[in-house]
Design goal:
mainly alpha
Length: 80
């Protein structure tokens, strides 16, 4: 069973990614642009679901990429 603490940690992680990663801020900006454009262009519900799903997938990929980079930074002190 999922506890409220799990959500607290998840939102804390999202906040950390957004506050510390420049690319995450760029993704948030363009996600808002895409949502506003979808509203202004009056896309259908199905089209909006595709837009929203794309936004979520891109942000998820950014979070996974950040986690991998930070893990590799702990393993190797070499600057890449």
């Amino acid at each position: 069973m999922v506890s409220l603490a799990s959500f607290k940690y998840a939102f804390r992680g999202l906040k950390e990614v957004i506050s510390s990663e420049r690319n995450a801020k760029i993704h948030i900006f363009f996600a808002l642009v895409a949502i506003i454009a979808s509203i202004l262009l009056k896309v259908s519900v199905l089209e909006f679901l595709f837009v929203f799903s794309s936004i979520v997938l891109v942000f998820f990929a950014e979070i996974v990429n950040t986690a991998v980079e930070k893990t590799l930074d702990l393993i190797s002190q070499e600057n890449n």
